[in-house]
Design a protein that fits this description.
By secondary structure, the chain is an all-alpha fold. The chain has twelve helices and no strands. The chain has one domain.
């Protein structure tokens, strides 16, 4: 655990000594705040409840994270491969698994900070009436699980590339595919249920509505674990190249 925290601390330091963390947090807050204010104005003019506003905002936050999470992970391994420091890292007295999990934990921590900045939204919606705590808990829990999938896959792409931009674009393309694939299930009856199960959106919709189902939690946790394991194998295999 000590080694994992050491890797995590080092990556967090790298985030915050460069403009990356500040830029990502600022732009994420600006975009999400703009969307929230728009829905708040719309709700006030149509007598919608605060719960309705937060459900809509949760949906948009998921889409925003679709764009931002590849930025958090694209440099974690790709930059070290490009600079040649990956060899020093892999030959240090620390296991590959600790390196992978430490880097993932660093990106996950920055993500939690980004989501923490949005806690002002439910506070402001209190003027429309008391919010359902279950909806807030479910919505943020769903965002964390969904983002964990994004981060884990982005880490995998970073471990397989020397170019940060390639890693980010590949991650985004994959996320977008699994985001919209559920819409194809309507036209493809034979494999419709399978496509629906693969869709990130179909699983997240339940969380945004305040419903936590075990099958959705298992999907996100399993996807994250598989990607982290694949990243571990990718790093392990690089020692033999």
């Amino acid at each position: 655990m000590k080694n994992i925290l050491a890797v995590c601390t080092k990556e967090l330091y790298t985030y915050f000594v460069s403009p990356i963390a500040y830029f990502v947090c600022f732009v994420f807050s600006a975009i999400s705040g703009f969307i929230f204010s728009g829905w708040l104005i719309y709700a006030s003019g149509n007598n919608f409840s605060g719960a309705y506003v937060m459900q809509a905002v949760f949906g948009f936050l998921a889409v925003i994270l679709l764009f931002f999470t590849p930025v958090l992970t694209m440099k974690l391994f790709a930059e070290e491969r490009k600079s040649g420091t990956i060899e020093l890292l892999l030959t240090s007295p620390i296991t590959d698994g600790q390196v992978v999990f430490g880097k993932f934990l660093a990106s996950w921590t920055l993500l939690i900070i980004m989501l923490f900045l949005t806690l002002l939204f439910p506070i402001l919606t209190q003027r429309f009436g008391a919010l359902d705590g279950g909806v807030l808990l479910s919505g943020y829990f769903g965002l964390i699980l969904l983002s964990s999938c994004f981060l884990a896959f982005g880490l995998l792409m970073s471990s397989m590339s020397k170019n940060q931009i390639v890693a980010a674009l590949t991650s985004f393309g994959f996320f977008l595919t699994l985001w919209v694939i559920g819409s194809l299930s309507i036209r493809a009856e034979a494999i419709g249920k399978f496509l629906s199960y693969l869709s990130f959106l179909d699983h997240y919709n339940n969380f945004a509505r305040g419903v936590i189902q075990l099958k959705d939690v298992i999907y996100y946790v399993s996807f994250t674990c598989v990607c982290l394991f694949a990243t571990f194998k990718s790093i392990e295999s690089s020692k033999w190249r």
